[in-house]
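Entry 14. Structure prediction run on the chain below.
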Amino acid sequence: LSQAIDRYGDTFFELAPNKKTLIEWANSQNTLVDTADVRELRLGGAHVFQQAIELFQGLQMMVEREDDPVKWSAIHHNIGDVMGFIGQRSGSSHFLEQAAMSYEQALEERTFEQTPFEWGITQYNFGVALQTLGQLEDDLNLLKQAGEIYKQASTALKREEHPEDWAAALLSVGNVLCLLGVHRRGPRTLEQAVVVMRNAMVERTPDKSPFGWAVTQNNLAVALQSLGIHEEDIQSLEESIPIYDATLKALPKDDVPMMWAMVTANRASAMHALAEESDYVDMALMAATEFDEVARLFASVELSSYQQLAEERKEQSEALVKLLQV
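Output returned:
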């Protein structure tokens, strides 16, 4: 688990929308107390996924593209889903590349003109594979490509007919803009990310989609936090913190401990950045306290790399406290 989450970087923990993720999977393991049982479940899951790949590849050999193009494209789409899920869980570029190839093959028959919804879903999943691969390999070109694919998907997944899918595609556009924006001069791309994410929240409401709303809230706060750090903008940093607060109210620690830890770490990072910009010592103290709580949670489930990361951030916040108290 910790190996695959590492792709998200050392500051922000991104929550991916509408896709079974490591975070969701981890929280499905109930209390995550018995790490031996969890490891066994992971190994068992890998075996099941390998069987699924072999099954779909067998079906692929039995179905001729010319005889049944719809089924042929569906098989390639499903192979892409399994490959992509393994790639996300394991942080494997190989599986993500295989997923992207499978989606491209599916799109040879799944056209916008004939089946716009199915085309949009395949486009969206294709974008997820490319985005994850781009993050793993720090490849901005792949991220740009993923962003364009998400935009195309959002045009096919019409808001009136498929509001949740439309919102997921739009949020993914915002996520990619945020990832690209931190590498670009000026605030424009990050500002675009904030606007796009706010637009997605028209459909991602607490009543309609509680989990989707929490994901969108977190990622909106990350975009504002990124903008604040990038531009040394106190207002954006201040705006991000109450959004994290609202998100955490919807993510009880006992129910979804890993998601809670990741959003709490994001909030603590925003507090630390705000303390640096505003010389607000109490904010630095709160950041240190929250990083300590996150580190203890990661220690309880033996995620040592993330425990170490949180402890390092705690030490940075404590050092900032001493600096501001001088």
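Residues 157 and 165 are 6 Å apart (CA to CA).
Filed with the rest of this week's runs.
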